[in-house]
Write a structure and sequence with these properties.
single chain; alpha/beta; Rossmann fold; eight-stranded mixed β-sheet
Length: about 300
Amino acid sequence: MPQHPPTTRFVSANGLKLAYDTFGDADAQPLVLIMGLGTQMIAWDEAFCEQLAARGYRVIRFDNRDVGRSTYLDAAGLPDIGQLLARTLAGFAIDAASVPYTLADMAHDTVGLLDALDIPSAHIVGASMGGAIAQEMALRHPARMRTLTSIMATSGAPDLPPPQPEALQVLLAPAPTDRAGYVARYQQVMKVLRAGSDAHEEALDAPRAERAFERGLNPAGYARQLAAILASGSRRERLGSVSTPTLVIHGDADPLVPIECGRDVVRHVSGARMVNIAGMGHALPQSAWTPIIDAIAGHVA
């Protein structure tokens, strides 16, 4: 935790209120961090952001719609995740009009953030669902991107290896809404996603969960974001048109989005390259920060 955490600010973007903060020199090259499913911007740890900013970038992180302190789309209702999953597993496409929003809409949110901050283009880094949003941004708004870094994300192709059963179970299980239950659940989820014991990270889980709880939980928003992932389908066939310089970072122990999913992105984006983080699961542990930051800084340079 930095001595002086940045001030959370708000902008109007794409018809929403988005919460964000920044690190580094305001005149440096902008680098935007997009977080994953149901996860607040604080999952991009302040010290991680500061180390990235120290490489010469204006680092911007924000809460996606329906999470943290950004707008909750409660009026959009609650999607039937069971039905959507059943259709997906049966190989049927989901009509985008049948869900509250898609990953393309969330990519447009990121563009709206850039508009509000008067940033013509930025380096875009996304993790998990955030990586998929960044891919959609490269497909739909290439002029707004200087580079793309897709971390532990998939192309969405249905023939790729699925999550390990335990990882899928923690993804779909409802989170408790009381403080003690939420903290315990968070600890359980992170232990599964990290794919192994890590005493240092496990000691940080409770305070991280407490902080997320204090900023605000939105279980319905989690469901809407998951519906957006399911309804957005595969990007594989379109990735060949991506012209943005692309880096893929993936852990070889990822139990939720197996590394073959990252390799699929590399295979289909012309000129993309991959950095494999040995032993990393579906998380950003401090032990992996240096190779991740080195890879991002090398790519955007």
